[in-house]
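quick one before i forget lol
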Amino acid sequence: MRFALEGRKVIVFGATGRVGETVCEILATQGADIGVHCNRGRDKADMVAERVRTLGRKAVVIQGNAADEEDVQRCVREACDFLGRIDGVVNLIHRDKEFEPCKVSDMSWKDWEPHVEAMKAHFHICKAVIPYMRKQRYGRVVYLSGGLSCRFFEGCAPFSAVKAGMNAFSKTAALEEGRYNITINTVAPGKIAAPGKNLGRDWEGLEKKQLRANPLGRFASPEDVAYAIMVFLIPENGYLTGQTIFAAGGEIMPMP
């Protein structure tokens, strides 16, 4: 499929992360103009935006802290002013990059704080874009969740709790906004490959367990995740809402 998003305007929050650059590039290849969001990584965001432009699409960098409501409102306003409208929003923001597995009996509330902060960003983004989408009676919102939202490993309680909460939040928002032709869905990857990254012993054990359970015998690539996200952005897929795609190579097969 080529140019499935021709002329669409999409904001990608967390565009400078491990998956974000690939998402922006694939959406641009499919014809979308992109609002490239970053918090601190402005140089990387400029590089991503320039890559989008080399693919023949428009791009604007918007910089702000998604956990701050006023910052998010400003970012969305700047993107809309540049792009002209907002057809889709992809939220890839993670505040949990540095966490290590820790059992509930050994953790403190500080272990929860980065995950709860991420949930704050998810809420602010959704609240900021809905008025634009309601006005035009069209919108596609896609959140990046995780396989740990429905299958569980020791030491990952805060991550799993917030990702499961995000899934529930998205489904509830989908119920509320469907009357405005706004769809809200999630993509929940299993493990995303991170070549060359040194992991602690706990993570290595978890990864081996995941890989043994994966029918395809490999972890997800950023491209795998990006194409799953694109499914929910395609205009013709407007009957999909309140859904979760587990982009996990068959490792996660929840009952329908």
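fyi Helices lie at 20-29, 42-54, 69-83, 113-136, 157-177, 201-212, 222-233.
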